[in-house]
Every structure is written in structure tokens, then in C-alpha cells.
TrEMBL record:
Residues 3-133 form the Hemerythrin-like domain. Gene3D superfamilies: nmb1532 protein domain like. It comes from the Bacteria. This is Hemerythrin-like domain-containing protein.
Length: 136
């Protein structure tokens, strides 16, 4: 199964997270508008990625003859539901400069939790799931 598009979306999302991290380190208030735009941009990619995973990738893997891979894929999908909800809440809270300017500490705390979870999850997919899917 060719999953190059999924892997490229991971690269794009991880680059977006790295950009947000750099902007936040340089000053949340000073870079609030750019951070908000970055969140909106990443959100669009994440929504597309999750939708295609749910509609195409996970169902295809579930039909796989490899029962262990099908179970692993279902576990990844179930786990992603909660991570996606957390990210959606994060994006709604911080997708405008005013929110960032009013609560820099809140943004930093939230970003450290939510973006780290997204980042770690994609790294696990890249390491533990995608190579197995490509091999099927």
C-alpha cells in the first residue's frame, strides 16, 4: 500500500509544529498573529489527514490478512480520537492573535501538552505503523 501522501502530511505537520515552537520561543505576544495563522494552517492539514486516514487507510488495513496489523491499526485509530479532540480544542482556543496576547502562559502550557502529544503520536505512526502498512 502506498502511503507516501500520509508520510508527507506528517512531515508538513511536524514542520508546522517546529515553526510554532520557534515563534513561541521568540515571543508569543510579539508573534501572536503568525502563531495564529500557523495553527490555522496546521489544523487544515491535520483535519484532512485524519479524514483520509479514517475513510481510507484504517479501513484498508482492517481488511488486511494480517490480524495483528489490523488490531494495531484499530488501536491507533481509537487512540487518535482523543488526541484529535484535544487538538481541536487547542486550535479553537488559540487560532486568533487576541487569545494568544491575553494568555501567553496558558498558550505555552496548552501547546506543551497538546502539540507534544500530536508530535509523539506521528513519530509512533512513522516508526511502528507505517512501515508495516507499506510492507503489506
Amino acid at each position: 500500500m502506498n502511503i507516501d501522501k500520509f508520510k508527507q502530511q506528517h512531515v508538513d505537520i511536524l514542520q508546522g509544529i517546529a515553526s510554532l515552537r520557534r515563534l513561541a520561543h521568540a515571543g508569543v505576544v510579539r508573534n501572536a498573529a503568525e502563531i495564529a495563522r500557523g495553527i490555522v494552517s496546521i489544523s487544515a492539514t491535520i483535519k484532512l489527514h485524519l479524514a483520509v486516514e479514517d475513510r481510507a487507510l484504517y479501513p484498508a488495513v482492517a481488511r488486511s490478512a494480517d490480524a495483528d496489523l489490523a488490531r494495531t491499526s484499530r488501536a491507533f485509530q481509537d487512540e487518535m480520537d482523543e488526541i484529535a479532540r484535544s487538538y481541536e480544542d487547542f486550535a479553537r482556543r488559540w487560532n486568533n492573535a487576541g487569545s494568544l496576547e491575553r494568555d501567553e502562559a496558558g498558550f505555552r502550557a496548552d501547546a506543551n501538552i497538546v502539540l507534544r502529544r500530536v508530535h509523539e503520536r506521528m513519530q509512533r505512526e512513522n516508526r511502528d505503523l507505517y512501515p508495516r502498512i507499506e510492507a503489506m
